[in-house]
Each structure stands twice: as C-alpha cells, then as structure tokens.
Amino acid sequence: MRKYRYYLYPISLFCLIITFILLVNNNKPSDKTNIINQYYLTNNSLVKNYGRSNDLEFLSESMGLYLEYLLLIENEKEFNKIFNVFESKFILKKDGLYHIKWRLEDYQSTNALIDDLRIIRVLKEASVIFDNRNFLEIANKLSNSLTFTHMNGGYFTDFYDWNYKQHANELHLSYIDTEALTQSSQNIDFQSLQQKGNDETSPFFLEVLRIQKNKYEPANPLTVNMIDQMLIAIQVLKITDQPPFKFDQWLKSELLNNKKIYGQYKRDSLVPLDFNESSAVYSLLTLYFLEQKDKQLAKKSYELLRRQLPLQKEPNYEEIHFFDFIHSVIADYKYKNQK
C-alpha cells in the first residue's frame, strides 16, 4: 500500500503542474506578435497588407495599427524596432516639415490624415508608457506639420501633396482622431461636427464635409460603409461621453433583432446591401460597446467577431488583410482585458 502511494505522488504533482499551466495560459492576454512576425512582417520589418509573398502593398496604416497593438500589450522592444523602420521608410523630412507617406513608394508625395493622426496619438502615449521623450518630440513635429499644411477653411483635410503643395478640399469624419488632436493647435468642435454631420432623414452619418461648399454630404448617396459609420460613432462617443442617439438606437435594434451587423447598408431603406459580414465591423462594434461599458452588447459583438476568419484557429492569412486581422486582435485583447 505504501509503495502504491509513492507512485501516486509524482502523478499528482504532474497533474497539479499541468493544471497550473493551463490556468496561467487561460488568463494570459493574447499576444499575436508571433503570427504577425510569421505571416505579415518582411525580413526588414515592414508590415505587409496580406500574409502572402506576392501582390503586396506596404502602408503607413498597417505600420501604425501594428504600433498601436504593440503599445497596447506594452512590447517596448518590438515597438522600438518597428518604429525605427517606420521612421526611416515612411517619414519624409522636407523644408523643416515632417510628412508621412501613406504608401511606401519612391514617388509617393501624399499622406492620409487618419494614418498621421494615429501615429501622433500612439507616439504621444508611447512617450509616457515607455518613458521616451523622443517619441513626443516626433509626435509634436508631425502635429505641427499637419497644422501648417492641412488647414483649409479652419478644418484639417484628408490629405496633402507636398510636391505640389496642395491639400484636399474635403474632410471625412471617419478620419478624425480626437485623442490625437487633444494637444494640437487645431481645436475641433467634434460635437458641432457630429451634429451637422447627422442626417435628419436617416440614422446614418453624412460622412464627408465638403469644405468649399461648407456642406456635409454622404460619401455614397445610396449606400453606407459600416466601418466608416462605426469609426465616426466611436469618436462621437469619446468626445461627448454620449452615444450618437439615432445611430445608436438603430445599431442596437439591428443587432438585437437581426443578430448581425453587415458590412454595408442601403442608406434610404436601412436594409443590408448584401449579406457579407466583416471582421473589422465586428471589431469596431465590440470596441464601441466596450467604450459604452455595455458588457452585454460587447459580449454579443465579440461572439460574432470570434466567428470571423482572423480569430479562427487556422485561418488562411494569405487572404486576410492586415487591417482586418489587427483590428480583430486589438478588439480581442481589449475584450479579454476589460475592467
């Protein structure tokens, strides 16, 4: 009997160790950097738009979103590596100004406001979290350059061409990042923008401000893209601490009654344009309800997100755009680590 007990001791100890490892792994925040390194990063640390080896683009959007994720998980070493590549490849210093190429091409001379603001916000936050003043200095130079080059009628514009020294004549509301603009000399009254951007005949936002006409118009008069709608709604929620009423009511009704949110809708009839779902839409939907602290609807949104390709066990990364993948990863992390 005593000999039998001796056999039980190592077995019991082994079971305890396995149980402990499982508990630790279950509570460990998801870190997808290994997947990104394997499928989306080149040998020189550029982020590809797809996890394949052909027909690729290298976008400031992709680099900025990856930096945002690395900041979220506080991976300072990887953040520094990726930003050093970004600074050397995407940031152009010309005539005392700092410009960001929206796409990596030798002849590229335009930026995208949404990408610039994301980088500015991430660098400002990284300067605090990683205690690195250099990030703040670069963020301020980018911000000052934006203010100098992008202003048109008192508003930022979608892009600027530094070769021709011309800016766009419109502003997409989905391009605005209020957190990046907090310390900027540009004082955006987003509550006013949101109010004017509301469509009185529809729960959907009028997505574009035509600056020369001082008029808000739909990006498409017939359809709406839910990625743009969700980006605007999240910004409204952050700046006003209140969800946009008509859009919010429609969104919750659609989610609760139809159990899904599709990628595009008809602007007038409010019915889906088709029945294609989007991991990016469900990611933004999850973040929207997390921002509201609505745990029930955040859970419903996250459950829908988990069924999408980026969060499946063995997806085909060759067919998944990095924008969809990284938004899913960010939403997954924030949902699992919500307070």
Automatic annotation (TrEMBL):
The chain crosses the membrane at residues 7-24. GO terms for biological process: carbohydrate metabolic process. Keywords: Membrane, Transmembrane, Transmembrane helix. The keyword Membrane applies. This is Glycoside transferase. The keyword Repressor does not apply.
